[in-house]
Structures are given as structure tokens and as C-alpha cells.
Amino acid sequence: MTGAVTRSIGRKIRRFVAFVGRLAGQAIRRVVAFLRRAGVRAVSKAGERLRRRGWRDVLRVVAPASVGIALLGLAVWQAMRVLPVKGAPTAPPPAVAVELPSQGVHSTSNGYVLALVLNVKDCSTPVSVFAAIVLPKEYFGFEDSEVTTTVTKALVGIGVDDPTVKMLSIVQSGWQSDRQLLGFPHWQVGFKKSLLVGGTGRAEVLRVDDWLAHPSEVDAWFTAKWLVRRGYGSCWLRLPSLTGGNVPYVAVHAANAIDSVIGPKSGATNTGGSSGGSGTYHVNLPNGSVRTYEESEPTHTDYVDGLVPASVGYVTLVSPMSMIGGESTAPSPGVGVPRWSCGTRPHQSQSDLMKEGEGSEGGLRYFNPPTIGAFSATSSFDCSGVVALSEPGSQSTHDLMLLVIGATISLGGGLILESLLGRGRRRRETAATGDTQGGDAASPQPE
Fold first, then answer.
1. Cα–Cα distance between 112 and 106 in angstroms, integer?
2. CA distances from 268 to 146, 159, 247, 386 (A)
3. d(Cα 215, Cα 228) in Å, to the nearest integer?
4. Could you tell me the end-to-end alpha-carbon distance of the chain, in angstroms, rounded to an integer?
5. Whether the Cβ atoms of residue 198 and residue 245 lie closer than 8 Å to each other
6. What does the alpha-carbon distance between residue 100 and residue 109 come to, in Å, rounded to a whole number?
7. Model pTM?
8. In whole angstroms, what is the distance from residue 366 CA to residue 363 CA?
């Protein structure tokens, strides 16, 4: 009896649950259908309003604002290219040194003349450098008076403390009329002692086979990345040091590389001299600690001597670009072709200059920027400096670009402002139109 009652109650509960489920399903379906119909009606009304009013109202707001934003972005991008002007580079100037087969301790009164011609085409092309090593009669007069070994085939070279330079050629002058001079062999060599001042760079050397004929000049060509971007259509040109600064150190390191790598295979005459040595250096690091560095140079034959100083140096600039007045750190070159000259105090040897340099020891100076100073034996100007150059027509283009940028900013800002103000004005006009129509509907009509 009890089991039958329990089964009857269970059947009734299941029927009730099924009934409630059907009611809930119907309610959910009706709600979904209602929302669908409401959404369709809303979309239809919005579409009808757009069709009735057209896309012009939307475009009146979106189109001007979009164009204005695009114009402002374009103006900012152009301004970032035109307006910034970088200051003059503060890195040490490049140094150019000459290597000669000296058989004595030359001084600045019987050295050589180094004349450089810098051909600058534009701000994006490396500088083309022509170097003329002029050997006056005073140089050979001193050589002949101090001679201990007759040098018939001599090495003459040039070194630059810039590893990015590209050496192109080196030849004895007069090759235009005597083509045999083009047959003299020449080599290139790099030197890398990054912890020493002037210890990294490249050199090119020529074997002169008629040294006893006292050649008057040796010419070299190379390209160098001595241009630094300044601003729109302008750049900085780094003039090299020829008679002071780090020139003695570059000369020593380049000579060591030539003597040890090129000299033994060059076939040049042994000058009878040799050099080598070692040194210990203590460097104060930024964190306060001290690092000990040992530098040694194996003993080798001196085919060239880095201790021959220049008597006079010249740097001439040949370029279609114009100098920007008041921006250069080098002295004014005067009227005509820009040319700077420099020299050292008479009767000073290269070794004297090195001893008077701050922090120097036997021609090897550790690279410690706070202690790098100029040589007191040199004149106040060593041909180095920084010159500001402007490409032809860049100033007028610069002014025109500023005018265009200003006009673009004004136009873009005006479009955005007009879009915002026009939207508010149209809202007010719509509201005023609605009020007018409502007032007309409430007014009594005349009979």
C-alpha cells in the first residue's frame, strides 16, 4: 500500500516539473522573439533615419575630422625631420700621420709638409680625401748628413686613427708623365690597440724604388666618414688633426704595424734601426677600481719611423656646399676656397711632442678620456675642428617646408574645429526646428 502511494506521488511530481519546464521554455522563446523584433525595429528605424537624412550628416562630422587628424600627423612627421638641429660632435678629431724612412731624429724645421684636400659632395656621401706628402730639400739634407745606411728602396706611408677609412691608392707624384711610377708596390695594414690613444686605425704604404733621387712628393687617396648629420640639409664636417693632438701616437702605432707586417715582405732597404719595448699602465675605471694593463711591442726593424714631425699642415675644403657662419669651431678660413694651415713650434722633434703630452709614456698613452690633453709644444691650432655645411638650396627648402608645415597644421586644426563646432550647431538647429514644428501644431487653424 505504501509503495503504491509513493509511486503515485512521484508521477505527479514529474508531471509538475515537466509542466513548469514547458512554461519556462515558452517564456524564454517569447522573450527572445520579442528582443529580436525590437532589435529589428531599432535597426530598421536607424536605417530609415539614415536613408531619410542621408549620409551627409555623418560625413559632415567624420570626414573633416579624419582629414584634419591625418594632416596634423603629417605635419608632425615633417616637423621632426626639419626642425631638430644637432650640436657639434664632441668626439676627438681624427688624426692623420705620415710614415717616412727616417735615419735620424728630425725636427719640425726639417720635416715634411702634409696637405689634405677634402672633397665633400653632400651630407650623405663619405668625404673623399687627397693627401700630398711634400718632401722639401731640408728633409733630404738632414737625411744625407745623418746617413749610416744607404736606403735605395724606401717605404712611405700614411696612417689614420679611424678604422672605417677606405684606403684607395698611394703613388709617387709625377706618375702622369712617368708611368713606371705606377708599378711601385703598395700595401694596406690595420692596427688595433683599442686601449691606447691613437691605437686603432688603418695605414697604406708605398715602396719608392728611387729614393736616392729624392722624390719631392707622394700622393695618397682615401675616403672617410667624417660627416655627422646636423639638421635638414646640413651636416658637420670633422677636420682632422695634422700637427698635434694624437698625431704622434697614431704615427707610432701605424709605424709598428708597417714595420712588423709589411716591412719584412716589402723588399725595402733596412734602415739599420730597430725598436720595441713594453710598458705597464694603471687606469682608473668609472667604478673607482684600478686596472693594470701591460702593452708590449716585439723588437722589429724600423723600415719607417713614426717620429718624423710635420713642419706645416694644410687642409683645403672643396665642396658645392656652403659654410654656415658662426657655427664652426675652426678659425675662419678667409675669403675664397676654405683653407686652414697649422704648424708646430720650430726645432721640436716628434718625441719631444710626445713627452710633453699629458699622460704619455714612451709613445704609448692609455685611453683615459679625462686625462687626454693637447700637446703644449704645438701651436694653438692643429688644423682640427668642426665645420657646419649646408647643401645647396637646403635653406630655401627648409624655409618652404616650415611654411608648408605651418599651413598644414592650420588646415588640419581648422578642419577638426569646424567638425566639432558644426556638429553642435546642427544639433541646435535641429532642436530649434522641432520646437517650431511643435508650436505650429498647437496653434488653432483659422476657419
1. 10
2. 19, 19, 25, 39
3. 37
4. 89
5. no
6. 16
7. 0.68
8. 10
Q: Tell me how far apart the alpha carbons of residues 350 and 430 are, in angstroms, rounded to a whole number.
A: 91
Q: What is the pLDDT along the chain (447 residues), one digit of tens a residue?
A: 555 666 676 677 667 656 766 777 777 778 767 777 776 676 677 666 656 555 566 566 666 777 778 877 877 877 777 777 788 888 889 999 999 987 666 777 778 899 999 999 999 999 999 999 998 888 887 776 655 678 889 999 999 999 999 999 999 998 888 888 888 999 999 998 877 778 899 999 999 998 888 899 999 999 999 999 988 888 999 999 998 778 888 988 899 999 999 989 999 988 877 777 776 666 666 677 777 777 777 778 888 887 777 888 999 999 998 888 777 777 777 667 888 888 766 656 555 555 444 333 333 333 333 232 332 233 457 888 899 998 887 677 767 777 777 787 787 777 777 777 765 555 555 555 555 555 554 445 544
Nine cell digits for residue 332 = 675662419
For residue 392, what is its C-alpha cell?
645647396
Cell numbers of 165, please?
677609412
